[in-house]
TrEMBL record, chains A, B:
It comes from Nocardiopsis tropica. Keywords: DNA-binding. The keyword Oxidoreductase does not apply. It holds the Pfam family TetR_N. Residues 38-57 bind DNA. InterPro entries: Homeodomain-like_sf, HTH-type_TetR-like_transc_reg, HTH_TetR. This is TetR/AcrR family transcriptional regulator.
Amino acid sequence: MDTGAGREPRQERSRATRARLLDAAVACLAERGAAGATVGAVAERAGVSRGAAQHHFPTREDLFLAALRYMLDNRGEELRRGAAAVPEGPGRTEAVVQMVVDAFSGVDFQAALQLWAAAASDPVLRERILPMEEQMGREVHRAAVDLLGADESAPGVRETVQATLDLARGLGLANLLADDGPRRRRIVRRWARVLDAELRGAPD
Amino acid sequence: MDTGAGREPRQERSRATRARLLDAAVACLAERGAAGATVGAVAERAGVSRGAAQHHFPTREDLFLAALRYMLDNRGEELRRGAAAVPEGPGRTEAVVQMVVDAFSGVDFQAALQLWAAAASDPVLRERILPMEEQMGREVHRAAVDLLGADESAPGVRETVQATLDLARGLGLANLLADDGPRRRRIVRRWARVLDAELRGAPD
């Protein structure tokens, strides 16, 4: 009789294997690009058999889309944690800008960029990743509006918040090839002052 | 006796062939990515024999670097033309922001992005394209400072101009997968107003 006692650990192992494969896929994408992130290379990096990897992700596209979904879920989780940690008071705006900039950086951003680059020449992949990217954009935008206490009914405020996300995306791209840390810090600080003036100053 | 009469047309033909190959390389990179932009594929697109292409560009790296140099030279030329056409008066800041945003868009930006993505996993390519990218960044920055009449000795002004370039880069990336035109227009207009307030307003 199957009481489920054997099934639980098996499901848990399967989940752990899947997570290991997704972590490896993100690392492979960031380091080698989409062309280098084959199911075989990802399986090897994860220390998982090729057969097990193919059981989870029959095609490379399955693997890519699951990796992007995994990155977006992690990002959502980070945003929620970051939002809870943003301080009240005068440093708040800068902390929020830093949080948005951080959302477009690191190995996840590098991996996502490789997927965007691959999608630029692959219409099927593009159609599938676009809605996921749009969802991510909406979530970061919503978090920024809430945390900044921005009133989007005031003219120009929506565009100013959107520009903050575009700036963060641009900083992420500038950071791809060279460590851009000190410059990023100065720009985050400056942008926070601009935002304070724009969002709390006189409307125009 | 070689009077040079035969050499001139030959050199001209060679220059024209080279330009056709570079145009084709930019198009191939933008549409197919670095993996798809082989010397053979570029030669075919340019309507040039493979042998002639290999004479001009013995390796794919030679072709990539020459294509990037070609894009940067074209960009410099566009900036000079754009600078001459920027109107005086109240629309000037918006025209300058639009010019900077345009510098990070179109097929050239898409091709360069594919090279950056490839360079992220290729340290040799990265070392060679970094100085070219830095030169491009300095040129756009210098043009923006001059055209905006920005006083970089005032605190924060340098960062505000740099942020304009990062914003433009981020808008270019957002435009990669989906046509982002109307949103870009709104953000350009908004950012121009912010810049006017920042650069002409009271220093902080």
